[in-house]
């Protein structure tokens, strides 16, 4: 389970995400933009001068989308595993909630409605506005 078994892309994505998320990377990008802007008069604000920045930023943006998505996918997967472990380990927790991310939209909506009703019932109970019959009706 160690990082040594990671693919070359995963290792590269982790390194690139760390590097591009660093304040120095932002400063470098801002510096490049500043140099480009200052060089405008030198190149007469030509179409080629504009094309350089447009093409460069498009390429960088295109590649960064994939790095960001890879990072988010790994983070989400790790978070799901941690949450699944907490649900599994907590006594009284509903183990049917493990792997919810695998359910379809209708199943998720049904569960969401159920938990909204449970929350409503808990608030009614907290505020002293519920009876047992009210609680049963809300939870159904």
Key terms:
mainly alpha; about 140 residues; 5 helices; elongated
Question: How would you explain this protein's 3D organization?
Answer:
With about 140 residues, the chain is mostly helical. The chain has two domains: about 100 residues; about 40 residues. Helices cover about 75% and strands about 0% of the residues. It has five helices and no strands. Helix 1 packs across helix 3 and helix 4 runs antiparallel to helix 5. The longest helix has about 45 residues. It is elongated. The mean pLDDT is about 90.
Provide a compact summary of the structure:
The protein has 140 residues and is mainly α. Helices cover 73% and strands 0% of the residues.
The amount of beta strand, in percent, is under 5%
Shape: elongated
Oligomer: single chain
The number of distinct helices, counting runs of at least 4 residues, comes to 5
Number of strands: 0
Extract low-pLDDT stretches. Answer: none
- Could you give a short account of the major beta sheet? none
pLDDT average, as an integer?
88
What fraction, in percent, of the residue positions are helical? Answer: over 70%
Helix-strand topology string: HHHHH
Gap between N and C termini = 43 Å
- Rg is 26 Å
Structural class of the helix and strand makeup?
Answer: mainly alpha
Structural domain count = 2
